Amino acid sequence: MSSQNVKVAIVTGASQGLGAGIAEAFREIGYGVVANSRRIAPSSDEGVLAVPGDIAETATAERVIAAGMERFGRVDTLINNAGIFIAKPFTEYTQEDYVAATRVNLAGFFRITQLAIEQMLSQGGGHIVNITTSLVDSADSRVPSVLASLTKGGLQSATKSLAIEYATRGIRVNAVSPGTIKTPMHPEESHEALAALHPVGRLGEQSDIADAVIYLEKASFVTGEILHVDGGMSAGHCH
Length: 239
Description:
Elements: E1 8-12, H1 17-28, E2 32-37, E3 48-52, H2 58-72, E4 77-80, H3 95-123, E5 126-131, H4 146-165, E6 171-178, H5 191-195, H6 206-218, E7 226-229
Parallel strand pairs: 1-2, 1-4, 2-3, 4-5, 5-6, 6-7
Helix pairs in contact: 1-6, 2-3, 3-4
């Protein structure tokens, strides 16, 4: 897998849930994958390089890019998937909650994206996908989540800003904005209530998000797009 002709995707938050599904989807279309999360096991697949570490730390971001370059010789795509979601009434958020959300959701995006774009510019192009949340566009009193809106809303705005800044230089920047997806984060007993938040009346699957990311990867005329994969949440409410 050291062939410099193989395209390479970096996926943060890749040990489980959406990130694991996205990493697998890129392998299925023949990409090499650099997979990062705080605790990620080495892969037996020589096309997957696991790089453990907290992406909020600049040293981790630098290590992920350097390791990807050393193994594969290039970086074509960056999926900023690492994120934390803390749903609480606004006045109940603690300073620790604020620091945790801003570190992972914002600092975890910032440095690795700078480094990836530098590399992409030297290669003549690339693609970045930020994973946000539908609550940014469609707040819901049943899920009070100002910290998600503050941080992921910032990512959503940055998506458009970066898309325009680099539009003439071969780098596309898009976002996928999920509704609630069936992942290990949501216990089985919460599924019915969470399904009711979506106009279509069910939870999304991890594959729905992976499919959306792969669509954007292949859609060479699409940049600055916020692709809602949310069972209609951002469109309105049925009730």
